[in-house]
Amino acid sequence: MNYGLMRRIIGFTYTLVILLFIGLGFCYSNETNSYYRENASRFDDYWTVNGKLITFPYSNHEEFTIENTLPKVYGDQILVLRCYYEHFIVSIDGKEILEDRPNKLFGKETNVGKKEIWVPLSEDYSGSTISIHLEMQKALYGSELSEGFITTRSGYGIMQLKSNALSAVIFVLFTVTGVFEVIVSAFFILKRAHLIRKLSFEALFYAGWFSIISAQWIINETRLPFILFGFMTGFSVLTIISFLLMPLLFYSISRTIYLRTDPVDNAIDIFMIVIILISCLLAVIGYIQWGWLIYVAHVLDVIAMFMVAYYSFSSIKKEQQLNARTGIALANGLFIMIACYALFKYIVNVDNNYTFFIIIDLMIYIMVQVGLVYRRIGLNVREEKEFMQAKIFAFTDELTRLGNRRHFYTMIDDYEKNKLPHNLTYIAIDVNKLKFVNDNIGHDAGDELLVGTAQCIKNAFSSSPTTTISRMGGDEFAILIIAGKAEVETRIRNMKIMLGKWKGKYIDGITVAVGSAAVWENPDCSINDLSKIADKRMYEDKALFYKEAGIDRRTNQNS
Questions:
Q1: Residue 505: count of CB within 10 angstroms of its CB
Q2: How far apart are the first and last CA of the chain?
Q3: Which keywords are on file for this protein (predicted)?
């Protein structure tokens, strides 16, 4: 990653936006009396049901037939009626000309994608009576005839692009920036950037995917993809899946920003993933309709918004002054309020103009969240390169290949710039009998003892992405980890088992003294305070070891 590549990506984005506006210019320069009849004309007046005039939007829970008289039409035009239907039959002057076909997905019949009726027209139909027998979908939020117009397929696409220009621009920007964020964050995560940056890059990774999925949902809501390419059922399913993933990604971003790794938070994350997978599987096998997944998405929306509101409130409550985290909490609150309003408009009327509010909401959310992430990361590529080189030469212990004391204190500085995570634990480790090994077997054996200890510590703790391990000097090691009490105890127990089984050229089995202290049990402590508590407990553990072994600690002789 370099400045040249970044300039090319920005240039590509700029070009896409310019081309988009050129396209919009052609749309708006199209003449109403064009010979090619590319414009759409409204056709939602003078429809009747049982001889009575109706107005759009129109809903009816029973099967019904609507009738109207067609104006002058041409052979390249279509009649489009927007409604969520189960079944329809179209007749011209009493003669049936069109009937819907069963929609099938993965071999199972489904009503997903049944949201527009397209009736091909012919010049012979001009002035004729058109009758459409309809059975509407029985949806929780209702289903109704919302719009009708006569147009060509290209004219329909132009009309939608004109009326959804903002959505099209947001789609391009969100997609390009989202892809860029995913690539950059994945690059630095795989590079194993140090902890605080790694967590920030994880937040950027989720934010990138959130941008991509949101962009996909936004453009599908404009109906442009299936107007241009067809596959109404496929794009409808894609819209539903995007809508399902958005609350999960929203929650994941907030978790990484607030450093939430409690078992409850993990359980909620896993619960949302499992619900999405089960729901999609049940829809694939035809046990439930794909449309029902919208209701599942709304449940996930409520869960995600509640948890993020809780994180935001907790953050504001703990902070004593306004800062970046307070700002992000307030932005989250604004996002949730606008999202709830848009969801209310959708529930009241599924064809309501709720998309505009969601677009504005997403713009606010992504700008604020990603802005905070970029601020935390300080995406300076040259600085990152210098950091990686410094880490190799200055932050690594030559013998054990773990971080050294300088590296550890750098991590402490990063932590103390923010509120310490609730589950941050400091673990102090000291190797037993190092002096005895050096004096009686030799310094090569002593080095092997330290290397073996380092390997076992790394094997027990490095699988956690929130772990920092360093050799502080001599036979002393220190660990910082964000994890619950049970996880910390399990990892310490596994480490001791590995140490007991370790075998080398000189050493057969290793014992260590361990002490730990966590923020949750010492809420007002600094990391320095935690280290003192952990050291005290570690020395108590060491004293107990020598007492039980009957060995004088200083002379390493039997007492």
A1: 8
A2: 62
A3: Membrane, Transmembrane, Transmembrane helix
The owner of tokens 């909401």 is 361
Instruction: Give yes or no for a contact between 558 and 551, defined as CB atoms under 8 angstroms apart.
Output: yes
Q: Does the N-terminal peptide bond of residue 421 adopt cis geometry, omega within 30 degrees of 0?
A: no
Where does residue 277 rank: exposed (0-12), middle (13-18), buried (19+ CB within 10 A)? exposed
Tens digit of pLDDT for each residue in 441-469?
Answer: 898 999 999 999 999 999 999 888 889 99
Q: Cβ–Cβ contacts within 10 Å for residue 553, how many? A: 16
SS3 412: helix
pLDDT tens sequence across 482-513: 998 999 999 999 999 999 999 988 888 999 99
DSSP labels, 252-309: HHHHHHTT---HHHHHHHHHHHHHHHHHHHHHHTTSS-GGGHHHHHHHHHHHHHHHHH
- Give the Cα separation of 282 and 278 in Å (integer): 6
pLDDT tens digit sequence for 287-322: 887 778 888 888 888 888 788 777 766 765 555 444
555 to each of 434, 536, 546, how far by Cα in Å?
11, 22, 11
d(C-alpha 512, C-alpha 495), whole Å: 10
The two tokens of residue 518 are: 């966590």
550 sits in which H/E element: none
Non-local (6+) Cβ contacts of 107 within 8 A are none
Report how far residue 404's alpha carbon sits from residue 396's, in angstroms, rounded to the nearest whole number: 5
CA distance 311 to 305: 10
